[in-house]
Amino acid sequence: MADNYLGKKMEDHARSSTVVRKHTFSLERLLRRNRSHRAYDNSFTVREDQLRSIIEVNTLTPSARNQQVLRFRPVLNGEAAKVLPHIRLGAALPQLHLPREGEEPNAYIVVCSAVQPDKYVYTDLGISVQSMLLRAVEIGLNGICIGAFDAEAVKRELKLEMEPLLIVAIGRGADRIELRPIREGEQKRYYRNAQGVHFVPKVVADDLIIK
Q1: pTM score, whole prediction
Q2: Which one of 60, 95, 113, 154 is at 20 to 30 Å from 185 when CA atoms are compared?
Q3: pLDDT band at 5 (very low <50, low <70, confident <90, very high)
């Protein structure tokens, strides 16, 4: 009986000591996967809990003066059609008329400010949207920051009391995107080849560092 008891206790201890390892992405991998998608898989619908999970990173991020004045309006599939006519994507590729029909985002996060925007609010805005996009990638989604939109129309359509500063589209990205290292002074505008691969030039580290 004592032997059985001791044996069971040893088994319980071994089981409780087992480390459960979750699959995690390194920061570099998250950053590489966090590309601006202008086409989305419309067979996938973003869920409310996924948008909430993305927005919730703002409870952990830094805030200038700790003001925490940013507010977030989730827009799911039922309302996405209200936003779509008032956004513009792919300014460097106007001939493509992005997003193409059938590749539109079906979810958005409209970022607003509870106070008049100043440099501190815009500092928070940058931190916020990058953190949210990294979270989106972490849970298997993608997105894009949209600064080209009709703020008054979006405010009216969504009945917002605050001024929208930026819109983040969220979905399962359908673009093929590759980074291309360039030197300072080379063309930085993104482009696509005949096969539809989207290339994003990025200045190499040596040219980013002030000597």
Answers
A1: 0.85
A2: 95
A3: very low
